[in-house]
Amino acid sequence: MVSAGLAREAGYEIHALTIDYNQRHSCEIEAAGVIAGHLGAKRHVVLPLNLRQFGGSALTDDIEVPKDGVGPEIPVTYVPARNLVFLSLTLAWAEALGANDIFIGVNALDYSGYPDCRPEFISAFENIADLATKAGSQGQRMKIHAPLQYLGKADIAREADRLGLDAGMSWSCYDPQLDGRACGLCDSCRLRKAGFAEAGLVDPTDYAA
């Protein structure tokens, strides 16, 4: 949400891509549609891609989502090569649109655990984008913008507030409850709660715990 808000603030026309990869936390797909509409996206594409066929993650397989806190190791909620796949699909659409700028919302707390959120990956993919596309071969460099990359959750919450964005539109929880509330205990919920608390802002999320 904040990454797209910053793109709009910078004057970019927004074409929003959401990947429906049959993830456990599919609530984020509906949330993405609400955000795209709020930000005035020219088009919002929801692209189906069933990564449950591969599994290998608590988000795409019958593996319990951890609820015991954030650790230093790469968590079981890591989806194999997810951002590589997502950026490749986004790159394909960008080239079809004749666009040269791609925004992705990876951030500092993510790349401490997830390798496909790290600055080295984003930089490497930008080079690949130039090598792998007709546009790149013709000198139209592709730019991967990661404006949240060096920000923590508190910084991101402050940016949402500064941009006048209702954080209640966004979804973070990895394990939505049957009543539609965020679990409040998964790593993503814990980081979100801590970010709002550190920023001194009200977290509008309805948590079950």
UniProtKB/TrEMBL annotation:
Similarity remark: Belongs to the QueC family.
Cofactor, free-text remark: Binds 1 zinc ion per subunit.
Chemical reaction(s) catalysed: 7-carboxy-7-carbaguanine + NH4(+) + 2 ATP = 7-cyano-7-carbaguanine + 2 AMP + 2 diphosphate + 2 H(+)
Functional description taken from the UniProt entry: Catalyzes the ATP-dependent conversion of 7-carboxy-7-deazaguanine (CDG) to 7-cyano-7-deazaguanine (preQ(0)).
Listed cofactors: Zn(2+)
Pathway per the UniProt entry: Purine metabolism; 7-cyano-7-deazaguanine biosynthesis
Residues spanning the signal sequence: none
Catalytic class of the enzyme: ligase
Name used for this protein in its record: 7-cyano-7-deazaguanine synthase
PANTHER family: 7-CYANO-7-DEAZAGUANINE SYNTHASE (PTHR42914)
Residues reported to bind Zn(2+): 173, 183, 186, 189
EC id: 6.3.4.20
Keywords: ATP-binding, Ligase, Metal-binding, Nucleotide-binding, Queuosine biosynthesis, Zinc
